[in-house]
Amino acid sequence: MFSSIMHRITGSAAVGGVVLIAAWLVCLALGRETYTVFLQYASTPLGLLVWFGLSLAGFVHLGGGLRHLIWDTGASFELKKANALTAWTFALGIILTLAFWAVLFATGKVSL
């Protein structure tokens, strides 16, 4: 039940991320000044926290989708296996998010 609710919440957050990316593209289309203002807000600690949360939501939602793909094959429906698969879903989301942000910081794409 918890994983179902979290899948819906992370899906909704991912939609919010798509809206934010659309706003980024609009700012890009409006010109250098508008784009610079967007980047100034997006690169603040609060902005980075929002981006981090959106990436976490996206990766956890991806994990939930993979879990459903596995279930579509008829596998892991037993309670013990389903619970383990759910735990792996969240672990995958956290690991991918941390790896993604580690690469961003290591390559200098993001800094505090």
Automatic annotation (TrEMBL):
A GO-annotated cellular component: membrane
A GO term, aspect molecular function: metal ion binding
Cofactor binding, note field: The heme is bound between the two transmembrane subunits.
Protein name: Succinate dehydrogenase cytochrome b556 subunit
Transmembrane feature ranges: 12-31, 43-64, 85-106
Function: Membrane-anchoring subunit of succinate dehydrogenase (SDH).
Family: Belongs to the cytochrome b560 family.
Species annotation: Asticcacaulis biprosthecium C19
Biological processes, Gene Ontology terms: tricarboxylic acid cycle
Upper classification of the organism: Bacteria, Pseudomonadati, Pseudomonadota, Alphaproteobacteria, Caulobacterales
Superkingdom of origin: Bacteria
Gene3D superfamilies: Fumarate reductase/succinate dehydrogenase, transmembrane subunit
Locations listed in the record: Membrane
One Pfam family from the record: Sdh_cyt
The entry's keywords: Heme, Iron, Membrane, Metal-binding, Transmembrane, Transmembrane helix
